[in-house]
């Protein structure tokens, strides 16, 4: 038979075991609390990093926009001509040849208004067509000549069609190209529009000015103009 003293010893052992387990449990709870705090701190750090990354992306986008805007601004004194064949003129006589061609098309311009002109880089085979960039000393004169040329129908050089374009940065051209579905529909419906830098479409409807700088805004613009189209499929 187990004596009272043995039971007492076993009871003491159990109490000590429970006490040790309680202490271990407290230590585990403390460790868990420390880990939880550490995880929270890490989350806060990552949250702060996310905020800094977002701010950095915004700053980068702002700087890119400013750079693109500056590039477009310095191109505003330029006019781009597309369609001239390579044998139209040598580079050193390009200004004079463009000057004579403008005179033939009744555009009043003086030789001293030209700053420079060059063929855009490309193959030099005489049969190929390359764009010509003409720069004027004054932005105002470039804009006036551009508007006058756009009023001429069937603009050509010895039967070859010539297109007059604005000289834009690659980023602006890409942004405007994304609006092509809207532009195509406006053309098809005979609606005149203009561009606002870098890639906003402006349509004048009575006293109102309709604006669109994204496909969604373009879709809303078409609805305001009462145009039904297969925009959903095309966009």
Structural overview:
This protein has 235 residues and is α+β, with helices and mostly antiparallel strands. The chain has 3 domains: 1-74; 76-166, L1 transposable element, RRM domain (Alpha-Beta Plaits, 2-Layer Sandwich); 170-225, Rec A Protein, domain 2 (2-Layer Sandwich). The chain contains 7 helices and 9 strands. The protein has helices at residues 4-74, 94-104, 139-150, 170-177, 180-188, 215-224, 231-234, and strands spanning 78-82, 114-119, 132-136, 156-157, 160-161, 163-166, 194-196, 200-205, 208-212. The strands form 3 sheets. Strands 2-3-1-6 form a 4-stranded antiparallel beta sheet, covered by helices on one side. It has a 3-stranded antiparallel beta sheet with strand order 7-8-9, with helices on one face. Strands 4-5 form a two-stranded antiparallel ribbon. A hairpin with a 2-residue loop joins strand 4 and strand 5 (160-161). The protein is elongated and about 125 Å long. It starts with a helix and ends with a helix. The mean pLDDT is 82. InterPro entries: L1_C, Transposase_22.
């Amino acid at each position: 038979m187990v004596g009272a003293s043995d039971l007492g010893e076993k009871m003491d052992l159990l109490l000590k075991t429970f006490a040790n387990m309680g202490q271990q449990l407290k230590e585990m709870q403390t460790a868990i609390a420390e880990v939880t705090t550490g995880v929270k701190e890490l989350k806060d750090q990552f949250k702060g990093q996310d905020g800094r990354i977002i701010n950095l992306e915004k700053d980068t986008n702002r700087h890119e926009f400013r750079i693109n805007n500056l590039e477009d601004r310095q191109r505003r004194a330029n006019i781009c001509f597309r369609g001239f064949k390579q044998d139209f003129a040598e580079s050193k006589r390009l200004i004079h040849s463009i000057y004579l061609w403008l005179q033939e098309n009744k555009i009043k311009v003086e030789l001293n208004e030209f700053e420079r002109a060059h063929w855009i880089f490309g193959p030099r085979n005489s049969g190929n067509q390359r764009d010509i960039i003409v720069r004027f000393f004054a932005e105002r004169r470039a804009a006036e000549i551009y508007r006058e040329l756009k009023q001429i129908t069937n603009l050509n050089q010895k039967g070859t069609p010539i297109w007059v374009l604005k000289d834009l940065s690659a980023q602006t051209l890409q942004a405007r190209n994304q609006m092509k579905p809207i532009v195509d529909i406006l053309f098809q419906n005979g609606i005149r529009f203009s561009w606002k830098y870098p890639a906003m479409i402006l349509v004048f409807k009575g006293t109102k000015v309709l604006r669109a700088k994204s496909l969604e805004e373009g879709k809303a613009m078409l609805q305001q103009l009462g145009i039904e189209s297969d925009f959903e499929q095309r966009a």
